[in-house]
Amino acid sequence: MAERRNAAPGLIDGLTADLGGPRTSALLGRLEAAVPWEELAKPVRRVYKPGKAGRPAWPVVLMLKSLMLAKWFNLSDPQLEECLQDRLSFRRFVGLSLTDTTPDETTFVVFRRRLREAGLQDILFDRVLKHIDRQGLLVRDGTLVDATIIDAPRGQKRTDGTSTRDEDASFTRKAGATRFGYKAHIAVDTSGIVTDYRVTTAKTHDIRCIDELTKNERKAVIADSGYMSRERQRAYHERGVLYAVVYRRRRDQKELDEWQQRWNALIAKLRARVEHPFAMLKQQCGYRRTRYRGRERNAFDLCMTLIACNIKRSLSLRPT
Prior knowledge:
Helix content: 40-55%
Low-confidence stretches: 11-15
Largest sheet: 6 strands, mixed
Number of helices: 12
Radius of gyration: 22 Å
Structural class: alpha/beta
Shape: globular
CATH architecture of the largest domain: 2-Layer Sandwich
Order of helices and strands: HHHHHHHHEEEEHEHEHH
Distance between the termini: 41 Å
Mean pLDDT: 89
């Protein structure tokens, strides 16, 4: 399906060019320049098959930018539609003039579904990561691994005895509290850029994903005590990779040896960098609870959120 063409900026766009929040406009200007939008749009356009019938599709770049806006500013689809209607900085960022119509919330739902069904989220993730790497922003001095629980609604019982609970999610215990949902496992470069991810149920142990997340690492793997495994430590050392994991007391050990305490203090300083993506996920993007039912949809949502986090994180790594 052919893409529709937006109107060229007119006189009224020129008169309002300096209007809008200056801080938001400046941030969006940097985000605009930080991403090769046309390169991201190429694989997406393949899902839009040319045809004579039907209305022209919205430009792919416009839709991708809109999805990123939703992540950066923690907007639902209805909120995104409304912001595109009345925020000048948002309209300029996505390429809408003041006389253009605006995509509605259903358009975003359909676009997101088509991306998910075509399996394009990982392609977009990899393309953004490669672009960041080409800019020389990845340090590649080791991989930090960690996981966090993303809570899901526990559901309610129906009158017929069934439940609205997400069947793909699971219960687990953490810090004495019962949690229900999924677990997001991430691998992070020492620059703070997320290089890989996995989504499992909440009950899956953190260590189950470390091998997949670090399969390409050649220097060091850094993680907390939950990833301690003598077997893996030996296997990584045989690969020539330092398995830098926080030590915990053995059952026959009253307290850690002095060298273990010094080691843990050193690892703690390095591990702090893996907390930055989680902070951005939960505090800036509002990714504290799932928005969808099913592992596939939530994995897609996490991937798109991580793309947004990586793009924004890359701004702080660029020379000023």
